[in-house]
């Protein structure tokens, strides 16, 4: 049976031959059942939002339902993958297909993964334009997350009335590099528009992988000061930052920025003891050995793939450290 792939984008369509472009356009929704390569635009079918939403809901409803809280780790996921800086459409689909193959396929797969691809310019010299693109795209991603939030709130209300669990899937987000900046801004929009006061946790697990955001994002700790960090922490059950000082790509980011704080994906949290209780970090340097290019290696190496899997299924942070043999100093 062919795999099922899902894509949401605010990129423009250049042509059937050239695929998606690097300009911002209205949101569009795509699916694919291909057994081949996803970087061929002919593999994708454009869908109306209503049909895309219905089919994704049906896919989630087909997941097994676990009524026993002790079995929550077995629940399947709908995961939103948001790529990072210097990524054109074909690069994004290739990375997405690789993640689906390694983490979401087969009986042991985590569920379904959905690609959100935004108009990163795909140019090594395009850091500043990409950051502007990410900021503008946050409104579009927020629109997607608002729909998901309203859906989860409706399912929770139905569950309270019926006394039976209504939702068979967890929602998780994996944000890479500058994609974390996009998610940061989008979640803050959702929080201010839908979730003050707090009603529903939208995201079960948020993984900030090599995140190109300020490392004092969560510096408010448990105090509610309506910052971007508040929006993330209040809409998410658990936030995990994966970082490494070996990340030279984020060294470039810090050099171009010239102001503000260090990068979360390169330096870790500014003060791990003064963040919300559901936020933590893992120094992944021990996984990379002598590898020089580590910015995207999180998705390519078996040990870091296993780490990502354990984090998404909700394994306790101490168990994660013990199971994977992580150095205690690297987990905070």
- Taking the alpha carbons of the first and last residues, their distance comes to 42 Å
Low-confidence stretches: none
Secondary structure tally, helices? 9
The profile of the biggest β sheet is: 9 strands, mixed
How much is the average pLDDT? 85
Helical residue percent band = 25-40%
- Determine the strand fraction and express it as a percent band: 15-25%
The total tally of domains equals: 1
What is the rounded Rg?
A: 19 Å
Count of beta strands: 9
Strand order of the largest sheet: 3-2-1-5-4-6-7-8-9
Overall shape: globular
Q: Strand pairing plus helix content: what structural class?
A: alpha/beta
The run of helices and strands is EEEHEHEHEHEHEHHEHH
> What is the oligomer described by this structure?
single chain
What would you note in describing this structure?
It is a single chain. α3 (127-162) packs across α4. Helix content is 36%, strand content 21%. The chain has a 9-stranded mixed sheet, sandwiched between helices. By secondary structure, the protein is an alpha/beta fold. It has one domain (5-330).
Topology:
Blueprint: E1 5-15, E2 19-32, E3 45-47, H1 49-61, E4 76-82, H2 89-104, E5 111-117, H3 127-162, E6 169-176, H4 179-194, E7 203-209, H5 228-235, E8 236-243, H6 248-257, H7 264-267, E9 279-283, H8 302-312, H9 317-323
Parallel strand pairs: 1-5, 4-5, 4-6, 6-7, 7-8, 8-9
Antiparallel strand pairs: 1-2, 2-3
Helix pairs in contact: 3-4, 4-5
What are its keywords?
9 helices; alpha/beta; 332 residues; single chain; nine-stranded mixed beta sheet
